[in-house]
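Predicting holo structure, NAP bound.
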Amino acid sequence: MAKEMRAANYSEFGGPEKVKVSSMEVPELKEGEVLIRVKAAGVNPVDAVIREGYYKDMMPHSLPVIPGWDVSGVVEERGHAARRFEVGDEVYAYARRPEVKWGTFAEYIVIPDSYLARKPKNISHDEAAGIPLAGLTAYQSLYGAGNLQEGQRVLIIGASGGVGSFGIQLAKIKGAEVVGVASDKNHAYMRELGADHTIDYKNQHIGQAAKEIYPDGVDLIFDCTSGESLQQGLMALKPSGKLVSILNQGEGIDPGIDFQWVFVEPNVRQLDHLRELAEAGKLKVQVSQTYPLTEAAEALKQIHTLHTTGKIVVVP
Ligand SMILES: NC(=O)c1ccc[n+]([C@@H]2O[C@H](COP(=O)([O-])OP(=O)(O)OC[C@H]3O[C@@H](n4cnc5c(N)ncnc54)[C@H](OP(=O)(O)O)[C@@H]3O)[C@@H](O)[C@H]2O)c1
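Done. Tokens:
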């Protein structure tokens, strides 16, 4: 008999009012897939952007859509040949599939086991659910595209949010010097994560302030906001420096700048590395708020402000 689950979902694109919580059928388990009982789902700005229909012509969608791409949970059932994990194992995943349809704001998700990594043992499901998308984004931007090296200086614009919080910690793990940019209320938080210096984008010119700290400039700018903040920050980039953005795809960027745009990819090898860092106590997750599934629309409203500190999660 088909299994039912409670899930947040929307049948039309639009604002948070389109999101309802209702009963849906759990999809049939196919070859290579596992059924995960969701313990917590991380919330990311992209979940709200997708709901608004922004990606509808760029990625295949199938309505109704269950939002959410981050999950921490427990393996409940395994399909044919899905043997990487045992029933009962605690796992986490960046669950972005080629089609936008089955998300993690639900009691269950069916997903190929190739997306799953073992959850860090020493942290809660709420914390683990905050890692995959944002942690992988920072990892792929700093260690991949940015090729950050020990002793280098990195300016992280938007450093107190989901991605930036992991950015500060991963840069410090590499032995880099970090300047974090966010509003004043988040400066103590960024320093706790390891930022050596902080800049308040509301009251300081980012580029000038960074040049005061490092007159020769920074080796890498990791841009998590784009717009005016990025333009200001560019003033502090060394001539030989690199710019990595997760928002700007090149618009208004001087072609002479060594620039790369990153769009985060699922990667279990990197999720395993993030787990090791979390278990070694080197990577922390600050969950600033937990929402029950019935308040999924509220969680999406909050994440859409682009002023969340650390991570927020939805718990079914
Ligand atoms: N390309 C990709 O693969 C990818 C992956 C993940 C995220 N993203 C995008 O990257 C952005 C950041 O994601 P997130 O999850 O880290 O978001 P978030 O958790 O909302 O964090 C936003 C951060 O930006 C800061 N901020 C807001 N306005 C700013 C401004 N004008 N100048 C400088 N800093 C500002 C916030 O600090 P205050 O709260 O102090 O203002 C906060 O530190 C989002 O737009 C998201 O959609 C892209």
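Residues 132-145 form the longest helix (14 residues).
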